[in-house]
Amino acid sequence: MFADPDEQQRVGRFQFFLTDRRWVWSDTVARMHGYEPGAVVPTTELLLHHKHPDDRPEVAVVLDRVQSGEPFSSRHRIIDTGGHTRWVIVVGDYMRGADDAVIGTAGFYVDVTEVLQSDVSTAVSEVTESRAVIEQAKGVLMAAHGISAERAFDILVWRSQETNIKVRELAGRFVEAVVGRMSPGTVSQIDHALLTID
């Protein structure tokens, strides 16, 4: 018997139809929630029931967007029928009909529980190493645009997603590009500002 390729990849699909407020799960998404395929009819209430209590307020906002047919992304925890907590990434985008009108939202679930558990030490190490160059990139954006550290980081994350480049690598390239192209006038202004502080 062949295994479901979605199950092997821990990726499952879903659809939400605006007209009749109907959810459709793939077999993999059903199993993520602890159900055998076809055992339940997914509803918004059922989805919320399975969300981790600490994540429900955030997920409720996301579900409002889904039910308006809007794109979204979320990383949160679900609790399956056996009481096990799973970390999932859920991403959705417009689902369009034949006339290109928005008819709902379609997307996918990714179960990242095992990845998070097995790679937590590696992730902490990578965050520590990447923090310095990310802070440099944030500093450049903060100085250039007069924005907060949080907004500067938001910009880096946005560009990371747009370019499909990890934030750390993007930050390193950005800093290298800026430093490598600074005009003598800019360097003089920086030096002057540094040396004239009392």
TrEMBL record:
Residues 113-175 form the ANTAR domain. It comes from the Bacteria. Pfam families: ANTAR, PAS_3. Residues 25-70 form the PAS domain. InterPro entries: ANTAR (IPR005561), CheY-like_superfamily (IPR011006), PAS (IPR000014), PAS-like_dom_sf (IPR035965), PAS_fold_3 (IPR013655), WH-like_DNA-bd_sf (IPR036388). PROSITE patterns: ANTAR, PAS. NCBIfam families: sensory_box. This is PAS and ANTAR domain-containing protein. It comes from Mycolicibacillus parakoreensis.
